[in-house]
Amino acid sequence: MSDDTKMIIVSALKKLSLKKPIEKITVSDITAESGLSRQTFYRHFEDKYALLNWYFDMILKESFNQMGEGKTLKECLDKKFKYIDEERVFFKEAFRLDDMNSLKEHDFRLIYEFYLNRIYEKTHEEVDDNIRFLLEMYCNGSVFMTSKWLMNDEENDIVDLLIEAMPLKLRELFEEIKLL
To answer: 166: which DSSP letter?
Structure first.
């Protein structure tokens, strides 16, 4: 699967999202805008939600892949929110979706699993239930506040606020394993 082809499809969806809500955009709309066939679309994506999730995955991987490997959580979040802010209209529309295919749910699962894996890589121990609870709460809160930040066109420094809101026990762990 070619990432170039996927980016053509993403570009078409982003362009269409400036004209109408994502839930009203069809695969036919996307393929017409991209100049690609439906077969090509379905060769790469199950549906438009898989397309949205793939694109968000790319942004998160680009932002977070060096966290704890020379980059801090703040640097990674700065990068993530820079990407989101540059395409605020598109992501605002994507975060507005309110079903099980939503980007909010996908974002939560992705960052939660990412943090769990990074903690395990650094400690070589299974993450205990208390840390899992705090991490789940923190990730849910982060996604909720990201959505609020987008929907309300807030200009505050969300990165500093998200780090400041981290539960103390989780913050201490992140500092210990050099993620903060």
So the answer is: S
Task: For residue 113, give every residue at least 6 positions away whose Cβ sits within 8 Å of its Cβ, in sequence order, or none.
Answer: none
How many CA atoms are closer than 13 Å to the CA of 60, on its beta-carbon side?
A: 18
Residue 95 neighbours by CB under 8 Å, 6+ apart: 102, 103, 104, 146, 147, 150, 151
- State the Cα–Cα distance between residues 97 and 49, nearest whole angstrom: 10
Give the CA count within 13 Å in the CB-facing half-sphere of 164.
6
Give me the residue label for tokens 């996307």: 30
Could you tell me the pTM of the whole model?
0.82
Q: What is the pLDDT of residues 7-63, one digit of tens each?
A: 999 999 999 999 999 889 999 999 999 999 999 999 999 999 899 889 988 888 888
- Residues 6 or more apart whose Cβ sits within 8 Å of residue 107: 56, 60, 143, 146
pLDDT grade for 98, boundaries at 50, 70 and 90 = low
**88 touches 18 (CB < 8 A):** no
pLDDT at 101: 61
